[in-house]
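Archive transcription. Copying these from loose printouts into the bound notebook so they stop getting lost. Printout 1 of 2:
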Amino acid sequence: MYYEHFGLHFPPFKITPDTQLFYTGGNRGLVLDALIYAIQQGEGMVKVVGEVGSGKTMLCRMLEEKLSNNIEIVYLANPHLSPDMILHAIGLEMKLPINTQSSRLEVMQQLQIALLEKHGQQKQVVVFVEEAQNMPLETLEEIRLLSNLETTKDKLLQIVLFGQPELDVNLSVEHIRQLKERITHHLYLPALKYQDIGDYLQFRLHAAGYRGPSVFSKSALRRLYKVSEGLMRRLNILADKALLAAFSENKHIVTAKHVHMAAQDSGYDMKKSAFYYTLIGLLLVSLVIAGGYYFYINMPKSSAILLPRTETPLTLPTQTQTQTDTQISTKTTIQQQLAVTQQWLEQMPAHYYTLQVMQSYGDKSAEIERLFKKTELEPFLNDLHPYYQAEKELWGIVYGQFENAELAQQAIGALPTILQKNKPYAFTLKQFAKKFE
């Protein structure tokens, strides 16, 4: 719709991975070069980790183009495979003479024969596993056994795992530590920095045919960075809708207002108005005058985790509290609950694990208070810990404390549906604390 208005030949911000729109900034080009090198050198297993929408699928498509013809790619898009089926999936992708009824031994024999034949023809086989963080631990262990297929000099099968940060958590589980030891390259896709945002948008626009000065104003770039957090997929969605908003007003410059409209349409929470913060400030002052709470004046913003804490220290809830205590906890203010989380985080060992069960941006205090009053959550209240990061306007809830990742993973299945629908995942309390650095 807006293509002719901005002098574009095709959509510059589509979210499907188009390799002509591959951006080499933000370390993407370096990661691609490192992957090509590791695969060509037959380095065995490689891991690529990045947040949702950071560009992992685009990397896969770029590898398909950049790798030489003597490298055959087996692409596994579905990570939800049992240990018995991972071999079949690879074999079927390689068009081996097997079927779903073939035994594991038969598939392994056919796979080894095919790999030896390709090695004799100076060919390599590499398996790309997308969304590897969702792969069962037993299947990951089966992949480790596949890495044993080798000659006296070369690996017969290379494996590249693409996953979200939860993949690192899964690989830290004790009984699959041998798999982690087999990974020779650990590559990471960071979110784009603010100084990369304008360059990225201009690159995409130029690739699509635009030849003018920057379309996005400085205020628009700041707002895009804040809402997208540097994640490419979210940035593409926002930029596309912001261009459409500017076109609808017959404007050739995208402003912060257009980005705001795009964010609202996309369901992303935006920074509230000055009036909103003035109102909140007045309410907080009223609470202080009433003798309830004080605002965190002396807390550095860079490490501020919680909203105002009570002047009277709160005791950390224990597992042995009575049902009456649990019911009372649903009536405590969100400030008290946040203060309890602060105490809990300070008391727990940093190497322990917890479960992320909710995370969102914007003012979610009322939503969290309503959630804590739901009947199905009563048995879990003592272990639910809300948190707030003021600088990012980030609200969330974590659940429990566990000595290792395996226990944390097992606890997910016992959570009520209302929490499981958010796809909870495990991470360390040390990682949790880093959210607020």
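Printout 2 of 2:
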Amino acid sequence: MSDHSDHRQRVKARFRKEGLDGFEEVHVLELLLFYCIPRKDTNVLAHQLLDYFGSLTQVLEAPMEELEKVRGIGEHAATLIGLITEISRYYLVSKAANQEILKTTRECGQYMVPYFVGRRDETVFLLCLDAKCKVLCCKEAGRGSVNSANVSIRRIVELALGVNATTVILAHNHPSGIAVPSQEDILTTKKLAVALDSVDVVLADHVVVADDDFVSLAESNLYHPDDCHMII
């Protein structure tokens, strides 16, 4: 067995024994690349990726076409790296789905955060609950900011009615990493609340997600569900 093969075996054995907790970012990438680049020194490629993108997080969240701009990173490597955040989101959403009853807006916000893991674009989701606070569904309602043309109030109302929801919670992300609601977010929330109220559906909250944190408009006193009938 060559020194290179010995090195790979040692890295794999270390992971199997200790997990990733003691690994530096470059070694995490090096190990990942073992499984798509069989005969090259992936430590060098891992350094190149970190130099190009700046951090492990930025590497994992980079578009696949950007990853392929790094010399030595081809389609297979870019696809494998791109899978990581997608699989992470899939896992976290599946895990959250086990919680069927959400009794507070805080629980609803926490439930929705995984839906935004690794998303580079602003995306809007609608969480629908029945009268007993049981989750009916959580569906994508549009791409772009909540006040953009890509997010239709009619679409959101139709989603709620389609599953016979009595209460809904709106969520969208700020890819910039700052979970601060804008004035447009607040105004659109109130307009949407009026539209939903007209079909007997309550918009209980609107949460703005950034990274693994969120801000609730209701908890921040920026939106009051009981006042929706007063908005013109």
